[in-house]
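Hey team,

Sharing the ABC transporter, permease protein run so nobody has to redo it. Sequence (771 residues) first:
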Amino acid sequence: MVVNDIRKNRIISSILFAFLMISAVLLTGGLRIGVTSITSINALSTVAQIPDYIQMHKGAYDEKAIDDFVKNHDYIEAFQVTKMLNIKNSELYHNGKSFENSLMDNSFVAQNESFDYLLDMNNEIAIIDKGEIGIPIYYSQELGVELGDSIRVEKGSYAKDFKVSTIIRDAQMNSALTSSKRLLINEADILELSSNLGEWEYCFEFLLEEGSIASLETDYIGAKLPSNGVGISGSLITMLNTFSHGIIIIIIMAISMLLIGIAFLCLSYIIRATLAEQSSIIGEMRAIGFTKKEIKKLYQLKYVIIAIVAGIIGYLGGNLLGDYLSESVILYYGRAKGNIELIKWGIPVIGVLIQLVIVTIGCTVIISRNLRKTVLQMLKGEDDVKREGHYKLPANGFKYPNISIAFGELKCKYRQYIVVFLVFIFSSFLILLPMNMKNTINHPSFMSYMGVGESDLRIDIQYTGDLEAKKELLEAHLNNDADIEKYAIYQYGSAQVLNNDGKWDNIRIESGNQAKFPLDYLEGKAPVNDNEIALSYLNAKELNKNIGENLTLNYMNKEVEFIVSGIYQDITYGGKTAKAKLEFNEKDLDAYIVYVNLKEEIDIEKKASELREILTDSKVTPVREFIAQTLGGISDTMGIVEVATVIISLFLSVLITAMILKLIMAKEQNAIAIKKAIGFSNDDLRIQLGIRILAIQIFGIGVGTILANNFGEAIFGLMLSGFGASKIKFLINPIKAYLFCPGIQILAVLIIVTVISKGVSKYHIRNQIIE
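Structure output:
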């Protein structure tokens, strides 16, 4: 009976199968990439032994004081000093081409002895011989650096060539969001380089007992140990590594859950329509002795079989999808070893089983609800027609008969269109959400979520002992450059802030004129007076500070009270920054960063190239390029998701339209036959069906667009809230969002309506009379 029923209703059964299969594919794929990401990142971190805490420092320091501190604190399990030789990008070449266009800061390092190892592509500790170099995987992918290529370091009359012998994975600095990259060379080579160019920077790296990071930060600051740089926790490193892949996992899982919900709605609709159509048959079965329980099992079996087959195929397809989307994860982090394959195959099975349980329980509830009628009611074939309502025909006749009848029937039978309406909302939402996310990330104004106002160029001055002199030289040039509309110079340094526990933490501060490139603040405004400070969203949250409250800073052994003037969004430096008018001592500065706006007619790329030739000690980056390099991986991922969601959404719209039309035509065959008997042609009836579906679709697209533009912003903000941006304003491409996407959705549905509605030709009044 089940097999015959599936054969009889091939299209409807196939559509339900497709819904369940697609949701199983996405659920399985999302779980698989999630497992792959977590296990690969954890495996890389374990083999590399990333530090629990890192304190960066430039300049001389007291080695004995550091050693004594380590000896006197039992929670420190291991300690080492990693020396990094910072090299200007203009002094670094790949196959003759300078790195000066790269946003990344580059440092040469030798392999560490105790922990924080740089690994090769087999996730083994990389060994580099003299004259060779290990290049980060980031440069392999972004700049096309390959094994055997030449990397040249050149300054003045000094030059040295290295052969790329290894592509390395750096558990600390793999992510594009980490703006520094380490290049691995031999110990002898780094000593030679240091005597000719570059500047040393030190990383004080700690392995700690669990839960000791807060104690270390407090004790380290209290001991007044070297801290001319940022402090980074291992958890922040892990968060940066998981950010880009975490977004795609969240999106895939969300789509999968929504698809299961839509499949459940379709299932409900199909079961109710089937039971209504076979009401008299069910009545006969009950009359001859079948119990409700037996009938329920019989009808439930069909949908369980469909769900099982869809789940198996979806599981296999989802694993292929997961492996495809996991390629970049494996490339950057490697494959985890051990029993990971069992976990990667096992956890998606649990997801598919959950889907099967949802379908089974849903079938039981829906069928039970529809078997409440008495045997007499079922034998009579009584249905819910009386609940559909009615509409009046116009007294003076039809002006547009097809439109009048279509909207009249839509008014009476709106309940049967709820499922397709929800699917159209979902499809529109699904198309627009990733598209709007990608547009927002790629737009120059996304800079505001990185803690600075929108600008054309970013200029960095760092890695030099005469930082102030370089800044003055840059300022003199900018003042005399007729192409520049405005610029602002910002100091970046660190101070200490009093936290809620009465202890001192490090805080990174930007000091400069905030009015030149203003931000949109979540709350309050930019600091104007010398006693005002603005906090990033995560800093305000962690310090539990609101607008108007006091905050105590300690700089150069002086405690100063500030008033919180504003709270802004920032996803850089782990989302923990601040802005204040604090004059840093030159030796305490990390960098000067200058933001520049050019006059409208000036070509940004051309001007950037010109400034690089003049300002040889500075790093000049167009803001679009800055965003592309920092968030390029995320943007590429969103591009893949955007294409996939368009295809899935159109497929869903076509499937659900086909299914609903088939069910409506079967249910309304009497009405169709009567209309044809009184003079309506097949084309008239097809037009009436098309008007109903397209009216529902246009309304659904409108609602979906509103939700994507509003609720979608909240979703994106929720994704980024852990990184420092809680409230995102979508930057929408109106042509794509409001013309192209709705147009292609309407066209796809129009085509399927045209094809499926041809079935009205088989309904005739003579057949209804015979029946």
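The two ends are 23 Å apart (CA to CA).

Ping me if you want the raw files.
A.
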